[in-house]
């Protein structure tokens, strides 16, 4: 199974995936980013994984970036693409090329609190429970079919950084578990409904 990871930031999710799949037959064929200086690319290089980056501002328009990004990723022939902390919305060309094979983790219980600030938005709303969602990517913002969700209670007076870190501990563990499952099994998608994967109790 060929896996391609996309990320924009520090890359703790990517690091967890690299380490968590090391004893499997899953090959991480590349780590891609929108940011050439994203720390995640250093982590990937240190693990001897190929990296690439492309930022929309270096292209004539968003469609040109989308097309180029799609072609670059297609060149690695991935079976699955994982958006593991990739902070940009994937374009139409990308989603039509890899649709049904793109996985994202979002740090909230979708459909609540989509977008770039899921943790902050849950806190601002006064939610008592939030969590993380593993889902397929479609053309919307965090709107694709849900694969699995993991709730977490918000502590009184918890700040965004502390809550996000607690969520990320679950994201790392559960993303690795799901990818390990995918090596030997598959999911079925019917409309919004995804079946075939039952997260194990932890
Ligand atoms: C994760 O919470 C992910 O869900 C969100 O960005 C975070 C990535 O963190 N989209 P890191 O850069 O892997 O530490």
Automatic annotation (TrEMBL):
UniProt signal peptide: none
Involved pathway(s): Purine metabolism; IMP biosynthesis via de novo pathway; N(2)-formyl-N(1)-(5-phospho-D-ribosyl)glycinamide from N(1)-(5-phospho-D-ribosyl)glycinamide (10-formyl THF route): step 1/1
Catalytic center residues: 106 (proton donor)
Entry keywords, A to Z: Purine biosynthesis, Transferase
Keyword Ribonucleoprotein belongs to the record: no
Protein name as it appears in the record: Phosphoribosylglycinamide formyltransferase
Coiled coil spans: none
Any Pfam family the entry gives: Formyl_trans_N
GO cellular component: cytosol
Gene3D superfamilies per UniProt: Formyl transferase, N-terminal domain (3.40.50.170)
CDD domains tied to this protein: FMT_core_GART
Every Formyl transferase N-terminal domain range: 1-177
Family (UniProt): Belongs to the GART family.
Gene Ontology biological-process annotations: 'de novo' IMP biosynthetic process
Keyword Lyase: no
Site features described as Raises pKa of active site His, chain residue numbers: 142
Chain sites annotated for binding (6R)-10-formyltetrahydrofolate: 62, 87-90, 104
Reaction equation(s) it catalyzes: N(1)-(5-phospho-beta-D-ribosyl)glycinamide + (6R)-10-formyltetrahydrofolate = N(2)-formyl-N(1)-(5-phospho-beta-D-ribosyl)glycinamide + (6S)-5,6,7,8-tetrahydrofolate + H(+)
GO molecular function: phosphoribosylglycinamide formyltransferase activity
Domain of life the protein comes from: Bacteria
């Amino acid at each position: 199974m060929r896996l391609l990871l996309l990320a924009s930031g520090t890359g703790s999710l990517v690091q967890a995936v690299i380490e968590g799949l090391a004893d499997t037959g899953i090959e991480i064929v590349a780590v891609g980013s929108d940011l050439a200086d994203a720390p995640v690319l250093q982590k990937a290089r240190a693990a001897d994984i190929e990296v690439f980056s492309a930022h929309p501002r270096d292209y004539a328009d968003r469609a040109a970036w989308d097309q180029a990004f799609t072609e670059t990723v297609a060149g690695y022939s991935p079976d699955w693409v994982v958006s593991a902390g990739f902070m940009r919305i994937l374009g139409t060309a990308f989603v039509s090329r890899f649709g049904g094979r793109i996985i994202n983790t979002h740090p909230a219980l979708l459909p609540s609190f989509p977008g770039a600030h899921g943790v902050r938005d849950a806190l601002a709303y006064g939610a008592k429970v939030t969590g993380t969602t593993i889902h397929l990517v479609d053309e919307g913002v965090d709107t694709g079919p849900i694969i699995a969700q993991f709730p977490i209670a918000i502590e009184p007076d918890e700040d965004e950084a502390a809550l996000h870190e607690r969520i990320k501990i679950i994201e790392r563990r559960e993303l690795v578990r799901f990818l390990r499952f995918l090596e030997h099994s598959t999911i079925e998608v019917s409309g919004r409904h995804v079946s075939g994967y039952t997260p194990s109790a932890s």
